[in-house]
């Protein structure tokens, strides 16, 4: 497991450092993550909000989850890279999109979220815990 990590958006206008190890690592197969990232699923690590320091200004977009919580997506307004997420259900955490981490070689999804929505072509490891929705 990693103890700290850093990353940036495609153009470099937004940079971040995280000083704590992730509390949760997941691949999310929901339609919202697909649309938000443009990828067939979204990979996220969740970290304590106070461990994440961000330089640069992010744009944000809010929407409701299927359980009625407000979800916020944070992105670089210059290059459009999707970077962070927050959820009013877990205000003490931030999600970091794995693709914007400089060296994410340590990333290992320990859960699949909305696995029922995964595309047929997406390989799923049967050893990874799969949730049909967001785990409580
Ligand atoms: Zn950028
Ligand atoms: Zn999702």
Overall geometry comes to globular
What is the helix tally?
A: 1
What is the arithmetic mean of pLDDT?
96
Termini gap: 23 Å
Estimate nothing, just give the exact number of structural domains: 1
Characterization of the model:
The chain has 136 residues and is mostly beta strands. The chain has one domain: Metal Binding Protein, Guanine Nucleotide Exchange Factor, Chain A (Beta Complex). The protein is 5% helix and 39% strand. A hairpin with a 6-residue loop joins strand 7 and strand 8. The model has no long low-confidence stretch (mean pLDDT 96). The protein binds zinc ion (ZN) (2 copies). The site of one zinc ion has 6 residues, from helix 1.
What attributes characterize this protein structure?
Metal Binding Protein, Guanine Nucleotide Exchange Factor, Chain A, binds zinc ion, mainly beta, three-stranded antiparallel β-sheet, 39% strand, eight-stranded mixed β-sheet, 136 residues
A few lines on this structure:
The chain is mainly beta. The chain is 5% helix and 39% strand.
Summarize the SSE layout with pairings:
Blueprint lengths: L4 E4 L6 E4 L5 E5 L2 H7 L4 E7 L3 E4 L3 E6 L5 E6 L6 E6 L5 E5 L13 E3 L15 E3 L5
Parallel strand pairs: 3-10, 10-11
Antiparallel strand pairs: 1-2, 2-5, 3-4, 4-9, 6-7, 7-8, 8-9
The structure holds zinc ion (ZN) (2 copies).
One zinc ion binds next to loops.
């Amino acid at each position: 497991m990693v103890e700290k990590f850093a990353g940036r958006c495609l153009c470099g206008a937004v940079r971040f450092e995280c000083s704590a190890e992730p509390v949760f690592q997941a691949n999310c197969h929901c339609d919202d993550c697909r649309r938000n990232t443009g990828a067939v699923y979204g990979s996220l690590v969740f970290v304590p909000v106070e461990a994440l320091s961000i330089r640069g200004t992010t744009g944000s977009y809010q929407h409701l989850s299927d359980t009625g919580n407000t979800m916020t997506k944070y992105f670089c307004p210059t290059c459009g890279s999707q970077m962070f997420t927050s959820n009013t259900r877990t205000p003490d955490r931030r999600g970091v999109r794995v693709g914007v981490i400089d060296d994410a070689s340590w990333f290992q999804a320990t859960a699949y979220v909305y696995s029922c929505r995964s595309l047929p072509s997406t390989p799923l490891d049967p050893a990874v815990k799969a949730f049909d929705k967001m785990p409580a």
